[in-house]
Amino acid sequence: MQIAIAGLGSSGSYLLRLLTNAGFNVSGFDPKREGFYIPCGYAANSNTMKDLLSLVDIEFSRYIESEAGEITFSGSSQKKVRFKSLGLVTFDKNRLEADLLKGCKWERKKLSGSFDLIVDATGISRYFLPAEDDYRMHTTEYLTSLPEKKDFQFNYFPKGSGYFWIFPMGDKYHVGAGSSSMSGIKESLSSYSAEKVVSRDIRLKPLLRSSYEK
Fold first, then answer.
1. Which of the chain's ends, N or C, has fewer CB atoms near its CB within 10 Å?
2. Do 150 and 72 contact (CB within 8 A), yes or no?
3. InterPro entries recorded for this chain (predicted)?
């Protein structure tokens, strides 16, 4: 059986490596240009990542950039809540994805050819499997430097319309906001200068469909 994986982000590159190691006839495809700056997804639980990557013979600790000591949640109608982290980290996602592809068969182009099974790992675009009900929000994300040290922070916008975050990444910070309102995003990021900027959509999956159908 010939298998194709379309999209080689975190999920696609991991699955390609996992199936390749298991002896499957699998090929990966991704048209992203070389050196493409991968947006978002830089934070994860180190314990979970360690377990997952051990299945493909990769040591996750080599990619960790910052470990959370304390996490802060806040919002327009609630007090700040702080608690100790149980494994939240940021990591070098670009390098990890590149290493996952080593030794695998893949091409830097859109999927082409005939296959028995195609896996759609194209992320937000869902190129082969469009969502019937697609609820999206905009995000803008900065890679920046800050004058004072900060830990992991989340601040929620009024009425659950989005949130703002700060993640330390080595000697830099990943700062961003996601919302249905572009003005809310711009306002929350107005005091930060950007060394890199990424703007994109994210897909949200509410716990209850009725939460956005009303």
1. C
2. no
3. FAD/NAD-bd_sf
Q: Which residues contact 178 (CB under 8 A, 6 or more apart)?
A: 137, 138, 139, 162, 163, 185, 202
Q: Round to whole Å and give the CA distance between 61 and 45.
A: 11
User: When comparing pLDDT for 129 and 6, which is higher?
Assistant: 6
Which domains does the chain possess? Answer: 2-66+92-125 (3.50.50.60), 135-213 (3.30.9.10)
Tokens in use for 183?
């003005």
Nearest by Cα to 164 from 175, 177, 173:
177
Average pLDDT over residues 101-109: 97
Tokens of 27: 């090929």
